[in-house]
Amino acid sequence: MSTVFDPPRPWTASYAPGVPEDLAPVSGSLMDLVADSARDFPDAPALQFFGRETTYVQLSAAIERAAAGLRARGVKKGDPVAIILPNCSQHIIAFYAVLRLGAIVVEHNPLYTPRELRKQFEDHGAKHAIVWSKVAKTVQEFPEDLAVETLISVDVTKGMPGYMQLALRLPIPSLRENRRQLTERVHGATTWEEIVRHAPLDADVPGPATDDVAIIQYTSGTTGDPKGATLTHRNLLANAAQARAWIPQVTRGVGTVVYAVLPMFHAYGLTLCLTFAMSQAARLVLFPKFDPDMVLAVTKKHPATVLPAVPPIAQRLLNRAKEKGVSLAGTQIGVSGAMALDSALVEPWEAETGGYLVEGYGLSECSPVLIVNPVAPNRKAGAIGLPLPGTECRVVDPDTGEDVPQGEAGELLVRGPQVFGGYYGKPEETERVFLDGWFRTGDVVEMDEDGFFRVVDRIKELIITGGFNVAPTEVEIALRQHPAIEDAAVVGIPGANGEEVVAAVVLDGTPEFDPEEVRAFVKKVLTPYKAPRRLIVVDELPKSMIGKVMRRQVKQQILEKLNG
Question: Distance between CA atoms of 58 and 56, rounded to whole angstroms?
């Protein structure tokens, strides 16, 4: 069994002009990203939060002060430090301040339930936490064995311009409600302002090494249970370098704008906003949540050079721009990930912006980006693209591990400088996802004659009905083509022939719905055995914070309706 590709790799012939086949090994740490940008572009805006700007030299100084404040409260090299924050300027400072001490960032979703947060704290055992004031009480109520020794509460409104902070204190019901949604009074915790009030960290305090763990990124992985992927400074530096190499037309420094509409606790938002943007000395515009009107207001003055997004965000932004008569011209590169990008969205987006909308693919275990469409005329809608420079890929039979012929479907195996070393405290889980040094993604893909990859589906989500494999994504795409259906999620439900293909569908405002007519429609698009045996109408599909349908919850929702 071959485990090494001899250059040139088959996909490199399709690379855009100026994109290298390989990159030099990285060195240093993530701290160098901010330090280099502060040295080269000290007065350039690094962060923009509700209009308030922070320059690179100001950001660097704030990181050093925050690191000193954390050190004074006992944070030391190797300590896991939980960060539970929305997108805000304090998030960026906290992230790099933790890393400056050689400690480990553990990112968390601030909208998690207490149970979900406790489960992750049980795994990583962090005794220091930097949290949104709205979440502080949840952490304070952890049981004694999970008690956090250093709890730092962050009031995100204090990162806003002064006039906004004053306005939120006015006795006006709407402003009071806005303030209530953004912040909460906390007792018994250190404030973020106390942390950043310190003198800068002593220059002789050592920073992290290249192969130190930088973050623990939680993921469901390929077996369904949440696990913490340990990503080193090397992994994340390499992925940022690969992203820069992929778009050589983007100039580093003043004028480069990146929109942080994706949550930075998610691996996708973390890499493109927290690391890539800083390495580019870009203006990072922070949005605590996706609001198309807020994004359009910024677009008028600072259109995005790079807009990391998911298809629902791109679609909503496009629709709202047309409704309000706001031009998206100047938005250069939309990067879509986390779910399949419908080719029907690409053409109107590119016509409106004059730029590109390209699909990419990655996993938390891979920092996360592995494969992206070229930002060039040869990009292929419907494909996830080409492996990034220095990334090796194989397509194998998931049962035997043997390579399959080009063009046939198989499991995607990868290796490269961005691929993680293992799950935190889970050696058996780590061993399970590697095959002779190659990471098993758990995704079924095909590679065409030009080296472009297309995802067929997740191995664990394939539906086996009557001995045939059915890819849920393929059926969902077919269902969405029906004029009565706005959205759909397909799962396998136990039945007489193994599993039945069942779909949860959201209707597009139609007063009449004929399931048999929809099934007949799908059979014209796909092989008949792939058509759903049953269609369940729901008001909405359960989705993650980035808009990805959560099929496990869909399955539970369907079972409850069928058994109710």
Answer: 5
CATH of the domain at 124: 3.40.50.980
CATH number of the CATH domain containing 476: 3.30.300.30
Contact 539, 503 (CB under 8 A): no
Count CB atoms within 10 A of the CB of residue 290: 21
Can you tell me the distance from the alpha carbon of 348 to that of 223, in angstroms, rounded to the nearest whole number?
A: 37
Looking at residue 374, its pLDDT comes to: 98
Number of C-beta neighbours around residue 132 at 10 A: 27
Residue 177 placed within a domain: yes
Domain count, the chain: 2
Task: Quickly count: other Cβ atoms within 10 Å of residue 181's Cβ.
Answer: 11
pLDDT at 48: 98
Choosing from 161, 178, 209, the residue where a domain stops is 209
Q: Is 237 within a domain?
A: no
**Strand extents, DSSP E, 192-256:** 213-219, 227-232
Q: Are 340 and 455 in contact (CB under 8 A)?
A: yes
pLDDT one-digit tens code per residue, 321-366: 999 999 999 999 999 988 778 888 999 999 999 999 999 999 999 9
SS3 for 408?
coil
Determine the angle formed by the axes of helices 89-100 and 31-40, rounding to 10 degrees.
Answer: 110
- Residue 111 buriedness (CB in 10 A; 0-12 / 13-18 / 19+): middle
Q: How far is Cα 223 from Cα 302, in angstroms, rounded to an integer?
A: 42
pLDDT score at 2:
40
Q: In angstroms, rounded to a whole number, what is the distance separating the alpha carbons of residues 478 and 30? A: 43
Tell me if 191 is assigned to some domain. yes
Residue 456 within any structural domain of the chain: no
Specify whether the CB–CB gap between 107 and 217 falls below 8 A.
yes
451 closest CA partner among 2, 4, 13, 3:
13
**Helix/strand/coil percent split, the chain, to 5:** 35, 25, 40
- Pairwise CA distance, residues 185 & 382, whole Å: 48
pLDDT for res 525:
83
Which segments of the chain have a pLDDT < 50? 1-5, 7-8, 221-224
Q: Please give the residue range of the domain that contains residue 170.
A: 28-41+53-209
pLDDT at 472: 87
DSSP H or E run through 308:
strand 306-309
Looking at 209, 224, 251, the residue that finishes a domain is 209
User: For residues 407 and 448, is the Cβ–Cβ distance under 8 A?
Assistant: yes
Give me the pLDDT at residue 220, please: 52
Cβ contact 118:106 at 8 Å: no
Name residue 131's amino acid.
V
CB atoms within 10 A of CB 86: 22
